[in-house]
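INFO batch 0412 | record 1 of 1 | parsing
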Amino acid sequence: MKVTNPFFNILMFLFIFIPFLMLQAQQDTLHYQKEKIELTDGSVIVGKITNETPDSLSVKTAIGIELTIAKVKIKSRGKIEPEEKPETVEDKMLDRLFISPTGRGIKEGVYYLAAHELFFISGGFGIHKNFSFTSTISLIPGADNQLLFLNPKFTPFQYDYFNASIGLIFLTPVPSFSIGTFGYISATFGSPDFAGTLGFGTPVIDNSIFGLIVTTLGLEYRVSKHFKLITDNIFIFFPEDFNGLYSLGFRFISGNYSGEFGMYTNSQLSSGDGFPFIPWVSLTYIF
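INFO prediction complete | emitting tokens
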């Protein structure tokens, strides 16, 4: 099916998923900071106390509604003991989805070595809390040239439920060395267990700047202690054309190891006679 207006799909993602992610983040926070208030009319309110005066209380409920209650109407109140968060294994690969970068960087002091699709070897490390660096080289048997990717990444905005990064990707064949440069910005909304990512990128040298625009839309959702579902979608806008690459898969998280398996497809693959998917396989060791 031909996509006549891909920007409409992007706007739908922004207006539906991002507010949902922010609401989920708010609910997660309130889940562990509850207070129970019983009123004189018999009703009960559970929420977080945001302000208290000698005459009133301000309470924010789990769905984000803020109420102001006169203390003369309160029969009793008491804190609810925080519930233990479910045990999970930390996902240390938060700087990317499958291929696309997220708005997060690699944590300072974290190093990793990864193999993607068997023939691409990648390494990354967090140099500073705001700066990380990754590099990837292809090792394709019999190829006259291999590909080298260098990706410095700056993450100036780091909050609990919002992170944004600016990065450059330098690409060159080796040993011939003819460098191309690609710049991008990426923002991630949500928690490490449930988040959405939006990114934009373009070539930044010669006359090709804005000759094509790449947009990424991704979603990650933790379903268990060791597994996270991921969808990583890449939209490429040429001057008079459009193409997309869509994926769904999972990340397995276990201590210092992380593994990924997913499937990519696009309109050409899905409309052909062959196998309609390109498998994505990745294995990472975190130091």
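INFO post-check: DSSP finds two helices and 17 strands in the chain.
INFO record closed
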